[in-house]
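Usage

Read records sequentially. Each one opens with the input sequence:
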Amino acid sequence: METVHFTQRAFRTLLDCFARPGTVGELEREYVVNGLYAETVTVCMSLLDGEVSFQTATEYQDINQSIRALTGGQIKPLEQADFIIIPHGTEKEQLLKAVEAAKVGDLIDPQKSATIMIELDGITPAIMAQLSGPGIKKLEMVELAVYKEFIELRTNKNKEFPLGIDCILIERSGRVIALPRTTSMNEVTN
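and closes with the structure output:
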């Protein structure tokens, strides 16, 4: 029964983060999969089950098999996956390729899009980003260790609402930030 409560708490944290983009949630650590943060495994256990599919950006078979064993999720190619996991240390080109491949849904079923989980590694230089959109009163400023090209690609993938991708950014410290497709994100330059 403890696992049920653990995943329910994590799901509630994720819902709060999606409802108020830019706010930081804290995730618990319980389960470990080599190659992933424990917090990412927490997100997977909260969101994946036998009805959805996933893939890692680098298609690590060990990670895929471990996540499948924990969640029952189906392993599918990047272009078909409901969830894409981008582990820390993923090369910039692989990260951008995975985001580019992510499905955005269609006008009849926009919910058939991908949610991308990105582990922030702390090595990538932090960018100050300005967020706006539903769930944000005026503007929200956040500092994120993401590539400028990721921001541009995400903007491009979300340009035709209701189509688009949702993102969950996970730090090693356990902090999580959600970026729904309705959130505009712009780099702040000095």
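Summary fields computed downstream for this record:
- The first helix runs from residue 2 to 19.
- The mean pLDDT is 93.
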